[in-house]
Amino acid sequence: MAHYVITEPCIGTKDTACVSVCPVDCIHPRKDEKSYETEKMLYIDPDHCIDCGACQPACPVEAIFRDEDVPPEYKHYIEINAHHFGRTIKAKD
Ligand code: SF4
Ligand code: SF4
Questions:
Q1: Can you tell me the distance from the alpha carbon of 36 to that of 39, in angstroms, rounded to the nearest whole number?
Q2: Which ligand neighbours the alpha carbon of 47 most closely?
Q3: Which of 5, 7, 16, 33 to mutate to test the pocket of ligand 2 (most atoms within 8 A of CB)?
Q4: Whether pTM exceeds 0.70
Q5: Hey, where are the domains in the chain?
Q6: How confident is the model over 17-39, as pLDDT tens digits?
Q7: Binning pLDDT at 50, 70 and 90, where does residue 89 land?
Q8: Separation of 25 CA from ligand 1 center, angstroms?
């Protein structure tokens, strides 16, 4: 299923605005998780995202894209998001 991906602009912002609007709690780490302090950005679990799109307009820095709309310079973030959850996924060319 298509899913959403967090990309580079989240780095240094990481305000968790997207976390509060996600209906399935698939954006991590949340502020109440230990790894929130050490992670430089947030990630979307590709296996649990239901492709609803609610997170995208909530992001103040336009870091969130649907997988097929990720700009070329951010394509590697598709894999980076999946990797955070121990999953493997390859960006389509
Ligand atoms: S698209 Fe919907 S389900 Fe997927 S991360 Fe965003 S808010 Fe959550
Ligand atoms: S709303 Fe955007 S900047 Fe804020 S944590 Fe989510 S992806 Fe990162």
A1: 5
A2: 1
A3: 16
A4: yes
A5: 4-84
A6: 999 999 999 999 999 999 999 99
A7: confident
A8: 8
